[in-house]
Amino acid sequence: MTTTSSSTSIDKTQKVSLQVPTTTDVPPFFAGLHTSYIAGLAEKLDAKTSYEGAVTEHLRMSGVYWSLTALSLLKSPEEVDVIMGLTAPTAGRPISIVDWVLQCYDNRSGGFGGNIGHDGHLLYTLSAIQILALADRLQDERFLNLKESVIDFVAARQQPTDGSFTGDEWGEIDTRFTYCALSSLSILKALDRVNVTQAADFILSCRNFDGGFGCTIGAESHAGQVFTCVGALSIAKSLHKLDADLLGWWLAERQCDSGGLNGRPEKQADVCYSWWILSVLSITGRVSWINRDKLATFILKCQDDEDGGIADRPDDMADIFHTFFGISGLSLLGHLHAAIPECAPFRQIDPVYALPTDVVQKLGLQGQIMVAQEGDSVEERLQQYDTLTSQHKLFQ
Amino acid sequence: MHGRKRTEYKHRFADPQVAAGLAQKAQQWYALSDKALSLRENDDASMTLPLLDKMLRVNPDPLHLWNIRRSQLLLQSDSNWLSTELALTAAGLERNPKAYGAWFHRKWVLQRQSITTQVSTMESLLQQELALTDLFLQRDERNFHCWNFRRFLVGLELQLYGGTTDQDTTTLGDGSWWMTTTTTEQVIGPQITAASKTTTTIDSNNTTKIHSILQREWDFTQGKIVSNFSNFSAFHYRSKLLLLSSFGDGNGWSPKLASTSTQSVQAMAEQEWSLMENIMFTEPDDQTIWWYHRFLLDFVVTQQQQSAADWYVPWLARQAETLQVLVEEDDSERGCKWGLLGWHLVLSRLVASSEENKEERHQQMETVLDRLIEVDPDRTQRYQIMKKQKQQKPQP
Ligand SMILES: [Zn+2]
C-alpha cells in the first residue's frame, strides 16, 4: 500500500446522514436512563459494600474516565461537571474527581495508579491525563508540579532495543502500552521525549497476514489491539505504513449477521468492538465499509431499558465499559447527532484520542487520518488532522 | 463484564441473602486491600505473601498486587519460590483465564528460573508448562493469552539451544508483514523485557532439538485445525511457523532456519492447498480458511522466484477451476460469499501473472463482484470501490 500526502477537498457542510432504523423492534436511545445510570455509578461503586466496586477497585481510574467521556456526549460540559463532581465536590462526596486523580499519583514510580495507593501504570496514567484534559485542569498547579515526573515515567517505558513500551517497570510488553505512551505524551506536548519512529516500527512488526495487529510480535490479530496500534500510528503520523485496504476489509468482516461487530473471526459480536473497530475505520476513512444502520440497531438493542447502561450483547448486564463504548460507537456513526435530538447539541467523540472533539481541538492535538478515495470528504470532527489519500491495490 | 444475563444477574442481587453475602465479600476485600497497601511499607514477607496469595486467588486482575508480591519475593533470601508461584498463578487463571497480571507473573517467574536453572531441569519444567497450555486451550481454543504464553515457552525452549539470536531483518513482499528470516523472533516476539540472555552457539545437536520443537508446534496447530477448522488462532500460529519451514522431497513439513528453495515452496503450497480445498468444501461459509488462503497466495509470491512461473500459473488456474465449481454448485441462501471472494482473489492474481484467457477472466471478475454485491449488501461500498478501480486501472 502506498499513500501520498495531498490536500483533500474538505466539505465543511458535509454531515454524516443516517436513517433512523425503521423496523419497529428497534428501541430508542435512552439518553435520560444512561445519564442517571452514569450519575449513580460513583456513589454505588464507592460504597464499601459494593461487590462490583470491590472487584473493579484496581481500575477505578479508567472507570471514571469512561463515565466522564460517555456523559460528555450526552450533556453539556457544565452539567457534566456538576453531575460528576469533576472540578468541585458534588453532594455526598468529600472531594472532586480532579482532587482524587491527583491523589492517585504514585510518587514511587512517577505514574498514576488505578486507585489511591496503587502503583503507577501506563494504562491508568493515560486515563488520569485524559480526565485532567476533560476537566481542563492540565494547567492546575498541582499537576504542573508532577508533570515532569509523569513525562519521565512514560518516556522511561520505551525499550531501546526495539521501541516497544512496557506498562510499568516490571517489564510486560504490549502494543496497548505504546498507544498509552504516545497518547499521554502527545497530550502533554512531550512526544519528543521518545523515539516515535522506532515506536511506530515496533507496531508494524506486530502486524499479521490479515492486516491486523496483536499485542506483541507473533500474537494473533485482535480488533481491540488494532485500535491501539492504528491510534499509535496516527499519533506518530505513520499511517502510510498501513495496508489500510486489507485491514479495512478484515475489520469490515467483523460485522456479524446481528449487525454487531466481533473482535476476531468466528467470535460473537460485542458492543465494545463498536468502538475499537469504528475508531479505526474512522481514522482510515472506511466507516462506510460496514452497514452502519445495522450496527446502530445492535448497539441500541444492548441497552438496559429499565436502569440505563449498555451491555456487551442484548439482554446481558450493562457495565460502564460497554456503556462508554456503545455511546462512543453511536457518536462515531453520527447516530447520536443525526437521530437523537437530545444529544444533538452536545459533543462528539474523537477516534484518535477518545476524548470529545472540542477538547482535542482546544489542546491542538496532532495526528493523521486517511481518506479511502481521492475526493472523499473529511468528517468535520477530523479536520484538525493531517490527511493521507489511499492508493488502492485491491487486486494485488 | 462479559456474558452475564441481565435478568439473572439482577434477580440474584435482589435476593437479600445473596446481596448480604456479596456485601460481606466486598467488605472483606477492602479490608485485605487496605492491609496489603499498609504492609508494603513494612516489607514483612511473612505476612504479606500469604495475604496476597489469598487475594490473588479470588481476583487475579489487580496488577499492583502482583507488583507488591514480586517486590516481596525479591527481598527474600530463599529464592526457592517457583512452585508456590506456579500454583498461585494457576489458581488465579482457573478463576480468570484472561487475567493479564497472572499470565505475566508466570512468565516473569519462568524467565528468572531459566537464567539460573540447568538445561535438563528447565526442559522438564517447560514440558509441564506446555501441558498447562494444552489444558487451557482445550477449555478455550481461542484464548490468545494462552497462545501467547505458549509462544513465550517455545521462546524459552529455543533460547536453551541458542535459537533466538538476532540477525538480519527482511521486509517481505508488499510490506504487509515483516519477518526476520533466520530467527524465530517473528514467532515469539518480546512479551517481557529480556533478562540476561544466554548465548549458546548452535551446534548440530542443538539444531536437531530446535527442529523437533518447531515440528512439535507445527503438529500442534495441525491437531487444533483438524479438530476444528474454525480455529483462527491455530491458523495464525501456522502462518508464523510457515516462515520457518521447509517442504522438500515429498516428506511433508520440516523445520528449517535458512532460506527456502523454490521446490520446497511448491511442495508446501501444494500441501497447504489440498488441506484448504477440503475445508472449503466442508465449511464454505467459515471465513477462517479463506483468510489463510489469502495469506498462502501472498506467501508463495514472496518466496517465489521468476523461474517458477511455469508452476505458479497452472497452480492458480487449478484453484480458479475448483473455486468456480464450489461457487456454481452452491445453492445455499447465503450465496457462497467466501467462495466468490476466494475465486475473485485467485482470478486477480491470474490476470496479473498471465496473458492467457485474460479477457474471459476479467469478465468473470466483474460478474463475481456483481454477485457479491447481491449476496453481501452490507459491504457494497468496498465492492464498488473494487469495481471502480478495476475500470480505472485495468491490470497490465
Ligand atoms: Zn466487550
List the helices and strands and how they pair.
The complex is a heterodimer of chains A (396) and B (396).
Chain A: E1 2-5, H1 31-46, H2 51-55, H3 60-72, H4 77-84, H5 97-103, H6 122-134, H7 141-156, H8 175-187, H9 196-205, H10 223-235, H11 244-252, H12 272-283, H13 292-301, H14 320-332, H15 335-339, H16 357-363, E2 368-371, E3 386-391
Parallel strand pairs in A: 2-3
Antiparallel strand pairs in A: 1-3
Helix pairs in contact in A: 1-3, 3-6, 3-14, 6-8, 8-10, 10-12, 12-14
Chain B: H1 6-14, H2 16-39, H3 45-58, H4 63-75, H5 82-95, H6 100-116, H7 119-139, H8 144-160, E1 170-171, E2 178-179, H9 185-188, H10 204-227, H11 232-242, E3 245-247, E4 253-255, H12 262-282, H13 287-303, H14 309-329, H15 337-353, H16 358-375, H17 380-392
Antiparallel strand pairs in B: 1-2, 3-4
Helix pairs in contact in B: 2-3, 3-4, 3-5, 5-6, 6-8, 7-8, 10-11, 11-13, 12-13, 12-14, 13-15, 14-15, 15-16, 16-17
Bound molecules: zinc ion.
Zinc ion binds at residues 270, 272, 312, 322 of chain A.
